[in-house]
Amino acid sequence: MREKKPAGRGSMTVPDANIIATSIRTTRRRKGMTLAELAERTELDKGYLSRVERGQKSPSVGTLLKIAEALGVPVGHLFGENTDAESIIIIRRDEHVDISDDSSMGPGAALKAILPAGDHRRLSVFLLEPGDGRHTQNADHPGDEFLYVMEGAMEVVFPDRIVSLETGDAVHFDGHLRHQLRRVGTGKCLAMLIVAQDLPTRSGEEG
Q1: CB 14: neighbour CB atoms within 10 A?
Q2: How many CA within 13 A on the CB side of residue 92?
Q3: How many Å apart are CA 164 and CA 156, to the nearest integer?
């Protein structure tokens, strides 16, 4: 069977402003570039670029070409049509980082970093095996936290309640909430922990 080719590629059309807004903003942040730096490189008004990134302005093809050049990506990347080397990250099993020696871990607990967050990446992903004690997390980060139980049972202890989770259950909560994680029973418990933190900004720049 012959692969079908997308129609309409002969001429470039500008997609909805909301579609490219996220692509521009995400790419700029991943490149570690401030809005002011993008404005300087493109010779476009910073306020205008801010509105483009919020989906309030629909840029012309010429503007998109300038932005793509300044960001060092093909213009198709801003349409979501192709990727650069930094857009897709593959982590093999032997690349997991064991951080079980963390002093905050309880006895018998294990924690492996699958994807640590960075200046240009807001997600961190961990594999967690709660031990007999409690694994205490310092709740001092903005953003979100998501916990999915892959095997066994565990509890998430908040200041005013306890959430019980079994295999296949998940919980999402604000990262600033103080909480403790503990295994229920003596069987193995394995969970995936995803933390989404706000990306840092420089010199008071807009995010």
Answers
A1: 15
A2: 2
A3: 7
- The DSSP 8-state label assigned to residue 143 in this structure reads S
State which H helix or E strand residue 78 sits in: helix 75-78
Q: CA-to-CA distance for 58 and 19, rounded, in angstroms? A: 10
Q: What is the pLDDT along the chain (207 residues), one digit of tens a residue?
A: 433 344 444 444 555 667 788 889 888 887 888 999 999 999 999 999 999 998 888 888 889 999 999 998 888 878 766 655 555 677 787 777 787 655 555 666 778 888 776 656 678 889 988 876 555 454 545 678 899 999 999 998 888 889 999 999 999 988 778 888 889 888 889 999 998 876 555 444 555
Q: In the structure encoding, which two tokens stand for residue 129, read together?
A: 């095996």
Determine which helix (DSSP H) or strand (DSSP E) holds 110, and give its type and residue range.
strand 110-115
CA 60 to CA 70: how far, in whole Å? 15
Q: Which of 91, 89, 85 is nearest to 192 (CA)?
A: 91
Assign residue 10 a region: left if phi > 0, alpha if psi is -120 to 50, beta otherwise? alpha
CA 139 to CA 131: how far, in whole Å?
Answer: 20
Residue given tokens 């198709």 in the structure block: 76
Q: What is the pTM of this model?
A: 0.56
Handedness of CA 183, 106, 142, 177 (dihedral sign): positive
**What is the rounded distance in angstroms from the CA atom of residue 38 to the CA atom of residue 70?**
7
